[in-house]
Design brief:
By secondary structure, this protein is α+β, with helices and mostly antiparallel strands. It has one helix and four strands. A four-stranded mixed β-sheet has the order 1-4-3-2, with helices on one face. Strand 3 and strand 4 form a beta hairpin. The radius of gyration is 14 Å and the shape is globular. It starts with 9 loop residues before the first strand and ends in a 12-residue tail after the last strand.
Length: about 80
């Protein structure tokens, strides 16, 4: 299916997902913030009104930025 995106990359942040997404869409053409999901309740890493997830498009491709909080147990692969 040409033009159909089958995977949506999700980037993990510790509280700066919305700031990062806004930066990315300011840098690339054909880019926009599609939706910002805010918390309506207190949760382990935040309070009501905090950004949980940002859906955005860069160069026509959909992406997500997640405020997942710190995770000391995560082992990120630099590749």
């Amino acid at each position: 299916m040409p033009g159909s995106q089958r995977l949506i990359p999700c980037l993990w942040f510790d509280g700066t997902a919305e700031e990062a997404a806004r930066f990315y869409v300011s840098v690339f053409p054909d880019s926009r913030i599609d939706h910002v999901h805010k918390s309506t309740i207190a949760w382990p890493a935040g309070k009501p009104g905090d950004t949980l997830l940002v859906e955005f498009t860069i160069l026509g491709q959909r992406h997500q930025a997640l405020n997942g909080g710190p995770n000391e147990n995560a082992r990120f692969n630099e590749s």
